[in-house]
Amino acid sequence: MSNTLKNIGEAFAGESQARNRYTFFAALAEKQGKPRTAALFRATAQAEEIHARRLFNLLLKDKTLEDCLKEAIDGETYEYTKMYPTFQAKAKEEGKNAEASLFGLLGPVEEQHAKQYTQALEELKRGVDLGDTGLKVFLCPVCGFIEIGKDPYQCPVCKASPDKFIVVS
């Protein structure tokens, strides 16, 4: 991999993280009664997203949807098999119980994401889209669990009630 490609990847990661950070900072500024500071954070977050998109387009230019699904599967699998279990164990070791609990909650969510991407990849190889056109995609806004198809009864990970789920199109 060339240095330029590595630099593009690093810049993309930095811009992506900055976008989320500034979005969260905007919410804090709003909560503290500083709407113009919040607007500055939101505008900068949008600018960082523009930068990230332009950089990512350079990384994406030779990729197929199959490549993207495989990359997503690899990333989600790493998170639930290695990253979150390691982070959870370290947090427990350090007596950080709330953090350990969060890491423990996120692992199963990432596992479900990997399974869903795997299903999408298998269906793509058969020439179809994920499920059929009548299926809905539901997102738990508490933990990020995704349910495809049937209306959720309750989030199996965080136990959020079905009325909390968001339909994503």
Report on the architecture of this protein.
The longest helix has 29 residues, at 3-31. The chain has helices at 3-31, 35-60, 65-93, 97-125, and strands at residues 136-139, 146-149, 166-168. α1 packs antiparallel against α2 and α3 (65-93) runs antiparallel to α4 (97-125). It folds into three domains: 3-60, Ferritin, CATH 1.20.1260.10; 63-129, Up-down Bundle (Ferritin), CATH 1.20.1260; 132-169, Single Sheet (Rubrerythrin, domain 2), CATH 2.20.28.10. The mean pLDDT is 95. The chain has four helices and three strands, in the order ααααβββ. It is mainly alpha-helical and 169 residues long. 12% of the residues are buried. A hairpin with a 6-residue loop joins β1 (136-139) and β2 (146-149). The chain has a three-stranded antiparallel sheet. One of its GO terms (molecular function) is iron ion binding. It holds the Pfam family Rubrerythrin. Residues 1-128 form the Ferritin-like diiron domain. Keywords: Electron transport, Transport. Residues 135-168 form the Rubredoxin-like domain.
| Total beta strands | 3
Apparent shape: globular
Low-confidence stretches: none
In spatial order, strands of the major sheet run 2-1-3
User: What is the straight-line distance between the termini?
Assistant: 36 Å
